[in-house]
Amino acid sequence: MPARDVARADRRVRRASGVLAGLAVLLVLAWWVDGGGLTGLVEGGSRAVAECGRLCGLLASLLLLGQVLLAARVPVLEHAFGQRHLIALHRGTGVASFAGMLGHVGCASWAHGSGGPGGVPDGFWLLTRTWPGMAAASLGTALVVLVVVTSARWLRTRLRYEWWHLLHLWGYAGVFLALPHQLWAGREFTSSPLRTVFWWGLWGAAVAAVAVWRIAVPIVRSRRHRITVAAVLPEGDGSVSVHMTGERLRELGASAGQFFVWRFRSGRGWPAGNPYSLSAPPTKRTLRITVKQLGDGSAAVPNLRQGTRVYIEGPYGRLTPRTRTSPRVALIGAGVGMTPLRALAEKFLNESADVVVLHRFTREPLFAREFLRLARERKLHVVASPGRRRGPDSWWGADAGRVDDLAALRARIPDIAVREVYVCGPGRWTAMVRRTVLAAGVPERRVHVENFG
């Protein structure tokens, strides 16, 4: 499919997703009003508190299920939104659903307590003992709180990725434990067949999405393609490339620029997956990733032995050739963010595109020999920006001199405004690059960003 048609199809999916989400919210609000919600607010007292709690619970339930669907790796959403936008939506939805959950628990406990805010503990204990499914809901709420707390930036950055990932998976258990009490006992869920079908259908869709795309499909693909480690080779600057072989790998549908979640069956912590991008275009028999030693999982990668079995989840990511609409391409990356861009560079050169690579690095550049070979044999243009960043508000190295970021970019890539731009690197760095690229006149639809952290 031509890139313009792909972009049009993705826009339709994004638009349809937004419309469906908006309709679901309006439907829930309408049902709340029909169930006496506004009347209860006007009446005041404990009835108003109960209705506020009921509304918070309904919206929190809807957002929690939406949050699960956003993180379930559903292919149509992955292709249309890309990981960066899905993660942002997942995070924002999670904050709103968590606030709604706390409001629901607090208001419901207040309304059923001995009177006033001081009766909240008694009301909570009464609900937990007497309402169907409330014991499971309390445990589910505790698990969701654990996930939210460990997802806070100040704590997440201090946790090893592998530990954070394992803790985060408990969020699924929390959601699926927290919701059924409403499906069993809440009048908003059981007062009509349509409402029962809506809520149970949405809950079932969330469960099915996780079961299929996060569990069943990865297991089937891993068994079918029988991927094993062929070699582990050093790349410099604390990075290594893992070369893998497998069977019928074309059937994975993977593309240069995408990533998988990898599990190498070696050592005790192998079930904890790690996301690594392909650093070379995939073939029908081979895959390659390049890993920098940053966490527990990546530190073990250099010690992988030939023949180690590999389990995969993916491919994911929208930083792919399917989005390209221009014959000229600029690839801008920093550090290990060059990994997907290295694969894209070779892919675009194979498609006869005019490719320039802008490489930011502090000490030793990744893929220096490979980029040199591509420059010599395939006319790849490489722009290096070495050394530490020249300041906290600039994404350039000291080589850029005293000119601003926009002038430095235009000096090195004069035709940047007519190029398709792909950016990958640390989150804050990629945000600065994106602003500069847009200021240079590149249309937003031709700027594609992925970040890591």
Automatic annotation (TrEMBL):
Annotated localization: Membrane
Keyword Iron: yes
Cofactor: FAD
Top-level lineage group: Bacteria
Transmembrane parts of this sequence: 12-32, 52-72, 93-111, 131-155, 167-185, 197-217
Pfam families with a match to the protein in the record: Ferric_reduct (PF01794), NAD_binding_1 (PF00175)
Name used for this protein in its record: Ferredoxin reductase family protein
Organism: Pseudonocardia spirodelae
